[in-house]
Amino acid sequence: MTRALPAAAARFGPSSRRLVILAVALAAGLCACGQAPPVPELPHFATAPMRIVPASSAAVDMVCALVVPERIAGLPAQAADYSGLGARGAEGEAYLRRPQFQAYAAEPLLALSPDLVLADNWQLADTTARLREAGVPVVALTSLESLADVRETFLVLGRLLGVEERARAEVAALDVRVTALAAGAERRRGHSALAYSNGGAGGWVAGAGTAADEWIRLAGLTNAAADRVGHQRCSFEELLAMDPDLLVVSGPATFDRKGATESLLRAEPALAGLRALSGRHLIVLPAWLYDTVSQHVVTAAEALARGADVALGSP
Fold it and tell me: pTM of the predicted model, to two decimals?
């Protein structure tokens, strides 16, 4: 599960997730050196999998948009906090009532008798190897930080899970929402936004190629860190030099009930001159949404667009 890692490592470590949409879980050596292997064939099923285990927040979001709860053999416990299921009301609760496991480990996953595990490619290679040795197909979702990745992954999952029509409908619905965002983007054109995090041990910003860069651009704003690639360290001096119109931060989460970034920004005298702070242009997204690497990049863009319209329209 993505959020089983420490939050800073999960969100802000250097990003090497690029290009490959779906691949059978990578060998440990290839992951370690950052070398991209050829895309292998996906598993072939005589009948569609009926005991699916999505083992990461991205997998939870995408799979649970495509199949009914009864086809989910189990979910990571962190899905309650770090997927979009909690925002789906009673519908989401039906998925969250499925059996849960605490960590991506072979024993608890095998106890669920899965016929397919969907994970992230960074998850423990040893666990993936043990699952495959036990005859369980494991497919890794990678690079779900762009809308193009999400669209393609939905279509591939549709074929893999036997729900192609549902997958096409999900893609079409996303396209409608993106069109609506574009229609209202002109009033935000020319304004900059920055996704910033600082838990007290130094700041990080989201540059090009990140999910945050995608939802900033979908909202019709310019990413103030677009000249950087991936998640990068950012000093106070650099933050002051960027001086974005809008600062976007994560709200409180399980590991951070107080919203450390917002608290630090408001308490640090050296940052008082930032336009986003002096003009009350600080936008707080729910932690699961700020952190999303799934179809909810569109949901995050919609939330940012609403917040930006309020902030930029205020005196």
Answer: 0.85
C-alpha–C-alpha distance, residues 57 and 185, integer Å: 29
Question: So what's the pLDDT on residue 9?
Answer: 33
| pLDDT of 315 | 40
- The mean pLDDT values, 10 residues at a time, for the chain of 315 residues are 32 31 36 38 86 96 98 96 95 97 97 96 90 95 88 95 98 98 94 95 96 98 97 97 97 69 93 92 95 96 97 71
CA gap 95, 79 in Å, rounded = 10
Q: What is the pLDDT of residue 44?
A: 84
pLDDT value at residue 146:
93
- Residues 159, 210 contacting (CB under 8 angstroms): no
Scan for tokens 């490592």, then name that residue.
9
Q: Which residues pair with residue 204 across a beta bridge?
A: 197, 233
pLDDT at residue number 6: 29
Report which DSSP code applies to 75.
Answer: E
Domains of the chain, earliest start first: 2-179 (3.40.50.1980), 186-313 (3.40.50.1980)
CA distances from 306 to 23, 87, 90, 93, 303 (A): 36, 17, 25, 26, 5
In this structure, what token pair is assigned to residue 287?
């932690």
H-assigned helices in the chain: 7-12, 28-33, 57-63, 79-82, 89-96, 106-110, 125-133, 147-161, 164-183, 211-218, 236-242, 260-267, 275-278, 287-290, 297-313
Give the separation between CA 129 and CA 67, rounded to whole angstroms: 26
Kindly calculate the radius of gyration of the chain based on its CA atoms and give it in whole angstroms: 20
Report the 10 Å Cβ neighbour count for 144. 27
Angle subtended at Cα 221 by Cα 215 and Cα 222, rounded to the nearest 5 degrees: 100
